[in-house]
Specification:
Number of strands of chain B: 4
Largest sheet of chain B: 4 strands, antiparallel
Number of domains of chain B: 1
Structural class of chain B: alpha+beta
Largest interface: A-B, 36 and 37 residues
Strand content of chain B: 15-25%
Radius of gyration of chain B: 24 Å
Largest sheet of chain A: 4 strands, antiparallel
Number of helices of chain B: 3
Number of helices of chain A: 2
Structural class of chain A: alpha+beta
Shape of chain B: rod-shaped
Helix content of chain B: 40-55%
Helix content of chain A: 40-55%
Shape of chain A: rod-shaped
Order of helices and strands of chain B: HHEEHEE
Oligomer: heterodimer
Amino acid sequence: MQRVNLRARRAVSLLAFLLVFSPLMVLLMSMAIDGMSMVATHRRALGLADVAARAGAATLEYKGGGREVDTSWACLNAQRALCASANCDQLSASCRADRSSVTVSVALRPPRMFSGAFSVAPEWVRAEITAQPRSGIASQD
Amino acid sequence: MIRSRRGLSELIGLLLALPLIITAIGATVYFGRALYLQAALEDTAAVGARWASTSLSGQQGCAQALEAMRRTLSGYYIDPSGARISVSAEEVWGRGLYARVRVSYRLDQRAVPVFGGLLGPITVRAGYSTPIDTYNARHSEGGWSQCSG
């Protein structure tokens, strides 16, 4: 009859448990923290896009009293408002304007526990807001 | 004898794993609470910026922004009396003012295991600057009042 070394098996099982459980726990922890970080960053991006889009829409007006709408002036004011609220070197933003609305898209980098292959959160978090003059927010994504 | 040895080995295993588990839970709770507060303050400041710039009178803009921010904080189950809120105005724009909305909150983290004692309380801040167009919000008629709470 073969004898089984229970003590050795127990030591191995404890080591295996720690080896498997520790990275798993760190991964779960990073998922929880990075998830909340993503939510907070998305909220920030939405706020910035909101402020910029409304600032742009408020200045959407006819060029020199004519019939052509000055969209570049609206986007310039959107950019000014954005850079007054945040450091524009640390974000990526774009502005589109037409006769009736201004759309601002803001992308921010969320702080992450791990980068590269071990990362569970995206590198950039993007938010987009469309505003119309005197009618507030038209859509948000 | 064998049973007591087995118990001892299990106890050692638990003692090895327990600090790891408590540290992981502590880190998740500590940073989770801080990030939840950060998201709440970002929303609060954005709401404040929106209400500050949509007033037709300069006296009401600040008051309604404060009220909206307090209500937003309450919606996140955060005590508004613990928050420091300020709404001020600055002349940096040719067509009106910039309303600067700031909100900060000191989060007591003493009850959080490991990290609460290690890193202590943290102050989370959020703020936005939003233009108030003279032509859209007739604030120039009576000036634009500033406030804090």
